[in-house]
Each structure stands twice: as C-alpha cells, then as structure tokens.
Design brief:
Structural class: alpha+beta
Order of helices and strands: HEEHEEEE
Number of strands: 6
Oligomer: single chain
Helix content: 10-25%
Strand order of the largest sheet: 1-2-4-5-6-3
Distance between the termini: 16 Å
Strand content: 35-45%
C-alpha cells in the first residue's frame, strides 16, 4: 500500500501520530507532549522534576532514553503511514546532567524508507544547552497503525 503523500494525507497522519503518543499508557506517567513538525521531524517536550531523579539528585538516564527514542521514532514514523515501527537499536550519549525544567527532544530522520529507517535526536535544556543525543534504527512491524486504538487519522 502506497502512503498518501498529499499535504492533507500527511497532515492527518501526523495528527494521528500525536494522538497515538498521547494515548500510550507509559505517557500517563510523564508531563510530555509530541509535535510532528513535518516529514522526518518530531519534537517531544518534557518537564523534569524530582520524580525523575536518581539517588544523586538529577534526571535518571531512562528519561534521556525515553525522550530521545520517542523523538527519533516519531520522526521516522512520519514517513511510514501504514505500519508501526519498532526500535531495533539505539545509541545514546549523555552530555550533561539535568535537574529540572522543560526539556526538548528534536528528532530527525536520516536514511532508509523501506524496511529499516535511521533517525537521530538531540536533547536540550531550557537554556538551549545539549544534554544528550542519540541515533536509532527502526524497522517496520507487522502491526498496522490503523489497528492501534490511539491512532486516529
């Protein structure tokens, strides 16, 4: 099945991806939101507070991973309108600790469109300083997006 690449078709797909993100049970645990910015681009905004800290008083690495993986994943899934993608690998680099505030993860598709897609993301704090970055590999699953309750085109 060929994806609808018209502006209205793409826009409907992007809004449905945003709804899918919001509907995921894991995201009820976090103050976060997804904005699809265009083909191959996504932004996750997340608020960090003490609930996300490790024992030394800064955000735990799982928060970095979740935000970077989600931003890269949704950037890649903007290019696939029929199937849910799965993360097959993710390489993560921590560059600075963060204690609180609004954090933004920007995801960008890099390559691949058929079976495997590669996307990257970077994570910045409220001052615009990079706190982490990562690159992920994502593959098409057998799960139709249309079968997922949160995906509403």
């Amino acid at each position: 099945m060929q994806p609808d690449t018209s502006e209205s078709g793409a826009s409907l797909h992007w809004r449905a991806l945003e709804a899918l993100y919001a509907s995921a049970p894991i995201n009820r645990l976090f103050d976060s939101s997804l904005a699809v910015l265009g083909d191959g681009r996504a932004r996750i905004t997340f608020t960090i507070d003490e609930r996300h800290f490790h024992a030394a008083g800064a955000a735990h690495g799982t928060i970095y991973f979740k935000m970077l993986d989600d931003a890269a994943f949704y950037a890649a899934n903007t290019l696939v309108s029929d199937r849910f993608l799965l993360t097959t690998s993710f390489n993560l680099h921590f560059t600075r600790p963060v204690k609180s505030g609004k954090i933004i993860a920007e995801g960008r598709w890099i390559s691949g469109r058929r079976r495997v897609l590669v996307a990257e993301a970077n994570l910045v704090d409220e001052e615009g300083e990079e706190i982490g970055r990562g690159t992920g590999t994502f593959m098409r699953s057998h799960i139709p997006l249309s079968s997922l309750p949160g995906y509403r085109p």
